[in-house]
Amino acid sequence: MLFELLTREYEIAMIEEAKSMPTIQILDRAIVPEVRLPRGTVKKTLLAGVVSFMLAVFAAFACEYFARANASPSEGVINSKRA
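User: That's the sequence. What structure does it adopt?
Assistant: Structure tokens below.
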């Protein structure tokens, strides 16, 4: 009976402590930097454009390869003579 009483009191104390804690704590004030550092967005954008272009070219070649591979052998001979 004593253990149950102490357990209840402990749980009530934990709940009260959780209620009394502030949800936002300010640790330090923000300081504006003296020199602004570049984030490199232009470089990242150009790199993403070049990489996507290369992937698009690779995908086009892969689609063409698989289209020719799935074609019947007689069509492949006719197309290769015309080229």
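The chain has a mean pLDDT of 85.
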